[in-house]
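Appendix B, record 7
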Amino acid sequence: MAEPARPNEAELRERLTPLQFEVTQNGGTERAFSGVYWDAHEDGTYHCIVCDSPLFSSTTKYESGSGWPSFWEAIDPSRVIVRDDHTHGMVRTEALCANCGAHLGHVFPDGPAPTGDRFCMNSASLNLKVGESADDQVDEPS
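Structure tokens (predicted):
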């Protein structure tokens, strides 16, 4: 797999809020119940705030009680990279945008059926495009 495209830091610092930059570029985490999407219920598609890649559908979003927007799967598994994260004295699975490498959040094995996964994302790493259908965002097989 090719290394994700890395946006220019100066452009990102100008375009993103300080929290968005800290979360996506430095692996930060917003406080629970503080992000704009933890309690969002609008239909649409959640995109990467850095590169605009469509990542999650509102149809897979659910109330996890964690205080962060949670999804049971990505629009397409190839859109999100998962890797081991051993920071802060914990062992977790980090989720990153496959297109640009932005930190999105973490994945936990305590989600609902059908996947059993909880993609626990930071609102600061996402941009909800209300009314957009995830069906329009899935790559067709060649």
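Remarks on this record: Helices lie at 9-15, 18-26. Strands lie at 44-48, 54-57, 61-62, 70-71, 80-85, 92-97, 103-108, 118-121, 126-130.
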